[in-house]
Every structure is written in C-alpha cells, then in structure tokens.
C-alpha cells in the first residue's frame, strides 16, 4: 500500500481489472474465494450503513434482496409450471379430438361449458368431437377407429418433430432432464448458457410439445431445469447474486426445490430433494429460503389451478383402509422389483446412450425422435393405459376404487370384490403396458428432447404395484381362511388397497432409478397426507435402494454425469485403497519439474513463456527457483488478463519488465523498465496439505470446502519415499497441486482418478 | 517399519497402546482423525470379507449394525416416551383426586371403566373422587375448595421435592432441557456421563415428577436428552459405534430427531430439527437413518397409545375454514409479539441464570425449586387455564369450537358467534394466565430439575394468539360491513378460526425463543396436516425470527451454551472484522516462544520438561530448534501415555533416552540408552494455514472439517508485518496454532474470541 519503490508503481490491489476473478466457461469455481468475496462485500455494506441513512437503506435492501429474489423465483416458476400444465393438457387432448366451441379448450373444459353433460359421463358431450367425427362424420366402426389412430400418430409426430427441431435450432441445452447438469453446476462447474433465457423459452415450449407427443417421458425433471433457469435469469436483477457464483448457486439450490415443489405439489419434499439429491453447498439459510420459495411456487400453481380441482397435483390420493403388518412382505417384494428395475434401467439406458454417442445413431437426432415417437404412438394407441398420459395413468392406478367408480380397474363383480370380467381385461392390458413402458423408456430417456424420468419410472412401478395389489386382493378374497389373512381380512371386508400397492411400487421404482430416499418418501407422504402410509413406502424405498446399490452405487443422474464426463466429486463415494497425497500428486517421478513463478526475479517475458508452455490453470509463486518456499498462488486467467492490460495501458511495461509479487519491489538499476506489480491478483492463502495426508482426508477437504486446487507441501527429512529425495532442495516447503479437470470431456471426473 | 537402528527399536505404530487416540473428559474430539479411523476400519473389514464366508457375514452384520442400532433406539425411545406420558398423566391427575377402583388409574381411565358416564360428561364419574370428597366427604363449598387447593399444593411440592432431590442424589446432569449440552456434545465436545445410564434413569423419573408438579415446564426438550441417552447406551452394543466418537455422534444426531419425533409425533419435523438446530456433522446417510429411527419411535409410541385416541400427540387439530389474505396482518402481529417475547425471555432468563450462578441463590437449589413450585401451585390453582397442564392448555387453545363443545372458550351466545358471558370470563382468565406464564417461565427454566421450554413458550404464544383470534372474530362479527371484512366474512359465517391464531401464536413464540424455522413450521404442519396453514405459520415464524434477531442473534440454547462456557463454534455466526490468521495466532508478540518438540534431538527428560511447563494439548514436532520446519503434531495425552508406558514396560528407556519421531533413529554412540520411538503417535498430516489466511476462511475450515487445532505457517519474506521479522529464522515453515479451549469454564467458547 505504501509503495516506496524507485519508480511509480502500479498497484493492482485496489482497483481490480474487469475479468480478474471471473471464470471461463467449463471451469470450476473456487467456493472459498467466492464466499470470501461475498463476506467482504457484506462487511463493506455493513460498515457504510453506519454512516448515512441512504447507506442504511441500501444495506437493508441488500439484506432483503435474497427474500425478494426467492419470492420472484417462486412466482415465476409457479406461473410457468401452471402454463405448462394447461398447455400440455390441451395439446394431449388435441391428439384425440377438438372442441367445436373453441379449439383452445381441452376436453374437460369443453364439456364443462356444455349443459348436456351428466356427472356420470363427464367426458362425453356433443361439443367435443373426435377427429373421426369431424372428418368422416362417424365415431363408430373400424374406419373411424383407423382415422382416429392415424390422427393420433400424426399429432404425436408433429409435436415430437416441433420439439426436436426447436431444441436444435434455439437451445441445444434444452434437451434431457437437466438434473445431471444442474447437479454439476451446483457443485461449482460453469456451463454458460445452460440456464439462460433461450434455454428457458425453448425448454418451456418444447417440454409441452414433448409431453403432448405421448413419448414415454415426464415433465418433472425438466421443471427443475426450468425453475433453475428462472432463478438464474432473475439473479441478474441483483448485484449480490449476479456477481457472485457461490451466492448464485445458493439461489439455484432453492430453485431446484421449487421445481420439485411445483412438479409434485410437495414443498417439503422439494426442499429435501434439493438437499439430498442435487445440492452441493446447502447452508441452513438456503434451507429456509428454499422452503419459502417452494411454498410460494406451490401456492402460485394452486391459484392458477391447472387441474381444475384445487389440488396441487394430478394424482392426489386418499386411502381409507389401514394396512396390515403382513402386507410388508409384498411391499418389500415391490422394493426388490423396483431395485432390480432401477439397476437394469440404468445399465440399459447408459449402454444405449453410449451407443448413441459413439455410433452414427447420434448424427440423426431428429430422425431418432421421430422414429421413437412413431413407434410409441403406434403401439400405445390400441391400449387405453398407454394411450393416456403418464400422469393420468399413475393417477388412475393410485386411485382407490369407490362404489361409483366406472373405471375398468374397478370392474369388480360385487361390492365384496371378486374380480370381474372388466378387471381381468384391465390386468392384461396393464401387463402389456408394463412391458411396453419398460422397453420404450430405455430408449426415450436421453433423446434430444426435454425428457423427465420421474413419471415413466413411477408408471412402471405403479403398474407392477397395482398388479400385485389386485393379486393380493383376490388371494385374500378366495382364501380368507388362510392363516395369514385370518383375523384381519374377513370375507367381504375391503382389507387390501391395490392403490396403495401402486403407490408403493411407484416409489420403489423411482427410488431404484434415482436412489432418492428421504425426499422420495416425503414427496409421497405429501401426496397422500397420511403418516401411516410412510412405513410401507419406507420399507419399499429402502429395499429398492439396497437392491439397486448391490448392482452399482450410481443413480441415473450420476451415471449420466459420468457418461458426459462432467467434473463432479460425488459426496457419497468412499475410497477403497489407502493412498497418500504423495501418491497421486503431480508432477510424478519422471515428469518435468513443476512450473512455478518466482516472487520477484522473473520478467514479463519469462512469465509468459512459463504460461504458454503449459496448460495449467494456475501457478504457485515461490521465493526463488533455488528456495522453493511457497508464497502464494496465481491463476492463469488472472495472470494473462493482468499482463495484457498492463501492456496496453501502463506506460513502460515491456517484455523485460520485472514481475513482482512482493509488497515492495526490489531495488533495480535506474534504467530498468518499471516493474509490473501483481501482488493484487495473487492468492496469499492457498490451501495446502502435507504429502503424508491420506487421500480420503484430502478428498473430504475438497468436498467440504469446495476447493479448486490444493497444493501438496513436502517438508522435513522424512525420507520415507524415494520421491522425497528427488524433490527440489530438501529444505523449504514444496509443492504441487492437483486440479479438478477443466475440460468437460476429459473423462476424469474427479481429481483422484 | 523396516527399522534398522543399531539397537532393538520399539515401534508404536503397529500396536497402539490403550488410551492412545482416546480423549479426556471436557475435551474436543478431532473429527478428521475419528472419521479416518472409521474409514480404515471399514476398509479392513471389506478387505477381509473377500477371504472367507465368516468374514463376509461379519462385514454384512457390520454394515447393518447401523440400521439395527437405529431400530433399537427408536423402539427404546418410543417406549420410554410412552411410559413418561402415561406416568405424567397419572401423576398430574393425582394432584386433583384419586380413582377408587385402583389408584393407578388416571382420571380418564378411571371413568372409562365406569358405565355411568355419558358422552357429555366424560370427566365425571363416581369412581373418581377429588381429595375433598375423599377426605371431608364433600365436593362443594369453600371448605372443599380449600382442601383441594391444599392437596394440590402438597402434591406439587412433593413431586418437585422428589424431582430435585433425585437429580441431586443420582445424576446432576439430568437437570435442565439438555439441548444446549447435546448441541455441544454433537459439535465434538466430550462430557462423560452426560448421556449415561444414571442420567437416563434419573431424567426419566424426575421428568415425570417435574412435569406432574405443575411447574411451568415441558417434557419435549428433555425427551431429546432421554433419546440421546438411549442412543449412547445402545452404542455400547456395537464396536463400530462404541469406539468411534464421530460415528457415535451420527447416532446421537439421529436420536435428537427421535426425541422430537416422539415429543410431537412429527418424524419429518424431528429430522429437520436435528438437522437445523442441534447437529453439527450431518451427512446424508444420517438423514435417512434419522428418518427411519424417528418413524420407528413414532410408531412405537402410537402402539403404546398413551393418549387413548390413536393419535401421536395430545394436541392434534383439524381446522375446516380457510384463512383469508387479510388475516396475514394479525399473523404478522403475532410474529412480532413472538419475536419480542423471545428476545425478552432470553435476556431475562439469562440474567436470572447468571444471578443464580454468581450469587448465593445458586447454593440452595432445593429450596429454590420448592419455592417456585409452591408459588406456581398457589397462583395456578384458582385459574383453570393455569391449573391444567401445559399441553392440555395448548390443546384446548388450538381447538376449533364445534357446536357441541362445552368448553368455556366456546361460550358463544349463538351459532353465529357473538361472544357470550362465558367467553368473556375465559378471556380474562387467559389474560391473567398469560402474564403468569410469562413471568414464571423465566425463573423456572434453568432450575435443577428437568425442564423443557417448548411447551411453556408455546403456551404463551397460544394464549396470545387465541386472545387476538377471538378479538378479530368479534371485530369481524360486529363490523362485517367494514371494507376489510366485506366479501369474505358475511354475518353468521364462521370466517375466523381463533384456534389457528393460537397455533400461529405458539409457533411465533417458540420461534422467537429457539430461532427454529423450517423444522418448526414442519412440526406444526405435521400437527395440522393441512398444507394451506403453512403460509400463516411461515409468515409468523419468519417475522418472529427477524424481530428477535434484531435484539440479539442468539437463541436460548446458544445463550445457555455461552452462559455455561461450553466450547461451541456457532455455524451461523459471521465475522465483523477482517482479521488474518496472523492477528489471532499464538504466541503473540512478547509471548514466550512456541513450545515445540524436535524430531530427533530431545531426550525423554527434555520432552517431559516441555510438557510439564505448559498446558497445551499438543505440540508441533519440528526438524530442529534452528530449522523449525514442521514435521508433525503430537497430542499431549498420547505423549504422556506413551512415555509412561515405555518407562514401565520397555527395557532401557530412561530419562536420557532420545525421543525419536523420525522413521529411522539417528546413529548414536553405542553406550547410549535405546531411543524411544514415537512416530506412531505423531500426526503426519497436521492441518495448516498460511499466516495470511483471512479469519473467516479459517473459521470456515474449523466448522466444516471439525478440527481440533490448526497450525499457522509463516513462510516467505513477505515482510508485511513486523511480527514476521521477529519470528524464528525467516526461512523454513513456521508455526502455531490455536486450540479450541479445553476447559469448559474458560469463558472463551470459540478459538477466536
């Protein structure tokens, strides 16, 4: 500060250059640096606020900007989710027919306006005409069926085509579920544009189209992406969040909670999802704010009322009968099924995606989508359970049969529930639907359209669960004198709830695929509202996770992260072998010596040579080449920007100028060019470990502090490893570092592999 | 390992001595070391499991021991909570009268067995006799009233006396709520016996007595302590948890969730409470296990069915009317009240507790309890709202008035709710009860009996809320043409629910006192089960927290931690000033030089002199006194144990033996005594920061990694601070460190104050 060199010194400390301290695309942020930047900012505002009223007001508005932002995110995401629901509902119905009094009405809406509808036949009214009625004037017979069939396929293809074309044209990042990428971004990686406005617009529109096209995908995962886009865009309104990557990620964590909250109408489950599944850094403050945003979003969605029933979700259920302890056996069976299906699905899907990536299949995404959409529509139409949308199917499967229910699934002969003809037909159709859904989902997830995995997974589980449930029910009906049924399941009593089995199955399959635990159970709990059903859900989810983990510990999102080569340090992973930092650090034996900068004995040109001849993201600064004691750490990007800037704007800085990282420039001959002072961009407190630190502790530090790099210091004459003897002069600290990989396709997602 | 010194060398590395690696009482554990120990253990078991089937089975049983432990904790804590509920209910009723058909029946139970009871007058049956009836054969009139009054006081005093005497005699740690201490223990501190079997037994019994004595305290906080004691005791069954302090704390975190789960019948809320309020290290695995344990406990409690209504809690509520947006204004008002009350309560209570600690008041805990109990009973009896137990009061205040309700609070004149005579009386009594509860709770919390704060705080808030609620209701009734009521509150409509106000008030007050947020809202949500009431609860809790924080950021538990001088590093605290590690590290300028050990040039006697002349918990090991480069760190306790042991058991180790921390002992003259090799107890990877590291980052590292100490290294010729020039020879790493304080009464709870 009190620079006293022989010439005017330019100090970078006080006025940081634009660009210094920012990150390049596909780079990892330094959490510690970002958080400490934010603390400094906060401290400054607090200090100023004591000086004037204006500053005090500014400090208050700064403190409340986080809440305001959360409110806005909740409102925006809730409104978008409502819009998506309404639009998807309308387009889905459009595949079957059109409303004569206004084509923009969906089926249900259309018939509301009609007076001729009775309660029993809500779905039928003259205003709503199927395509066959409209085109050939006839709704019965084989010909009409074929016309409807063809129109269904036509619309499905049209929607799918529009979806994939829009994604390709405007925002390639809009495809997929987005959760793997969001996990990576939240862990500190930067993917510019992934959460931008074009992605948001494109994803919103194409999500509606993709869902309506009847493909085996859901809107729940992409809703998380949409919510995160909203949050990222709204962050630009507030300096605090615009300029700080760590603070912005707090908001994104909350947005992930908002996404699940609007997808399932489960604010608490959403927050736990964010905490358990996607977030990396989740301080308690974020917990509370996430909860706030999730609630705002849920209530925004409810006031839009997209389903017309004041409910937050399509498949709200109310069960009346309690479950019996013996039923835990089938529930656990469902858990095993869910786990097996989850493990199998992940393997098959990853294998298929890898094939897409490596073979020519990947070059024709539009054709792929069209073929899959055509196949789906072709097979799905004849079976009423695959023709309806995924969430409608789940809703129907979860439903408990009341006496008035006209659904085929409730086709019992009598009130005391022997299965009737209708139910047997339904079971056959369900079994076929199960096989179809299982196969088609594997090739659907990962295509270049927005596609969520929650609904298809839940659908598979719900079908399996319902089948098992009806089986148990009939077993109990015909064998109520068996020991296991005696005492709690008398004939005629309504003792087994197939809908509950469907729900348990759905949870098990979703759990097997995503490996969610607490959040899944809480989401399901929020759907039913009954604490007693938590135990079956928990038993199934737990079994499912254990079974699936036995085949591989990665959930589908982690598998996709690895497939795409994103750098992601999995918090749950444990180390098998006990290695020390010295075993994994670079340079290894035989590598060229570590590229370092010295604190006051290199010229600009020499520094540039070091930087140009390597690809490292940063360089340790040491006292001198002989005495390699660590002084600090400087980032490549900051270094380049500063040198460029100095050359352009500072008088006298030339290639022979000395680069000085110390506070006082060393005395130089009077004719020398002015030195370039770079202490301001140097990190004076780089993180270090000793070379004897076990790797698991090192990785723990990486995870918990969110570091970008770590220097390994070697000191003392331990003599344990010959490497130590080959190192630089044996006194003095010394050095190396390992980075998180910087390029996403490096295929080395953690620094230790 | 391949020690090749001139004489037989004893290597401590392979066979750790008993005691090495353990902690003394009132010490802080090293999380990193504990976790790394557990990882080594796990790795060893995994490796062995590949060799034989027995080892595989052992590895599996090891993996599932965590779940088994959770199951046991849930069962035990649930059963204990059920027992406490039943016993407290019985003893509380005993203050009023006795059951003739069996003194062990409580009032309700007694009248169940009677056939003469009608539904309307469930509470009255000839079998249950008040003390006046029993003693003077008359239940009416002033004399009977006085007899009952005196008997009430007698029982209250008896229970209180037994409670305080038992606590003093058997387990002094059983007093208070226990949550501050559990927070401290979970953060890594060791208080032996705090979670032991005597504490458990004493706390369980005295909790029943204290609650029954009518003192203004609740059983919810102590239940957390009871659950933690169960967990700690059960940990002894499993080596994995018995031997590892970090693993045991994971179980204790889950037990805290179990405690809240059984206290409120809110498993999700319990888990969030543990996460938000008490836990320090809460990995995701713990989240899932806590949830499991909390559910097991809740269902155990329900199958015990202590309240006889299949509900988990005494105050289950169901509201029917929705709330209106305008009502947010009174809800926020309640939030402000709750915040003010919380801040005031904390100040008053801490002032009172400090007075107890510092004046002679503290010498007479038994008399204090008796005086407060007498005072409470004396004042409480005449007012029916203070006479009933805290949870009964809250239950009544939360209740929505139905038409059949005979409670005084529902004393409306007509169905359309103008207040009647009875209601006005009730309001007066409530107002008096409010003042009484506010005052008496301040002096009750902190006495030497088990005492929870949840119920008294909630009672204060519920009374205030109910008063405001009835006020709003009457306002709306008489002024339904006002602009704010028009449109949603027509005359005769039941538009305002005073019970909801009570609930919001309770949440606000509890929030103000404890500063809980998410967990509080979720607990309340689990009580009502309706998502729509979350918004009022959230608004009030948020306001309450903001208001209370404006007067001081500490909740009651943090305040008590500070009062008792426990070492606790608050995760939420932020630093005001920007200091560097160099500013706070010891030794400071003018202090004597840092006490260090050298790696191979000190004798046993010299080491003992260094250890004896200081009180530090550990010592850095450096290369030599001249070149103070850091080699490792050794703990005082480990050092003393090893030297003692070597002297007793190893031939030739005498005071002049050399202490060697290097791998190979230096060559010595042949007549020298054998060296004492201590490399095995040295930490080869002590954590270090540079002296330029900002304090907030340093504190962050402490919090996130759970460290016990950190070494501050000073290197390079930075010359920034003159202190650097006064340091040891300026090349080479250098040193030291700040500890977490070790003695609880040090009054310096964080290393930075």
Automatic annotation (TrEMBL), chains A, B:
Record has Transmembrane helix as a keyword: yes
Alphabetical UniProt keywords: Antiport, ATP-binding, CBS domain, Chloride, Endosome, Ion transport, Membrane, Nucleotide-binding, Repeat, Transmembrane, Transmembrane helix, Transport
SMART domains: CBS
One cellular component term from this protein's GO annotations in UniProt: plasma membrane
Membrane topology: Multi-pass membrane protein
Domain of life the protein comes from: Eukaryota
Locations listed in the record: Endosome membrane; Membrane
Listed transmembrane segments: 67-91, 149-174, 195-217, 223-239, 251-275, 328-350, 362-381, 426-446, 453-472, 500-525
Gene3D superfamilies xref list: 3.10.580.20, Clc chloride channel (1.10.3080.10)
PROSITE patterns: CBS (PS51371)
Coiled-coil region(s): none
Domain CBS: 585-649
PANTHER family with a match to the protein in the record: CHLORIDE CHANNEL PROTEIN, H(+)_CL(-) EXCHANGE TRANSPORTER 5
Family membership: Belongs to the chloride channel (TC 2.A.49) family.
Protein name as it appears in the record: Chloride channel protein
Organism of this sequence: Nothobranchius furzeri (Turquoise killifish)
Gene that this polypeptide is encoded by: CLCN5
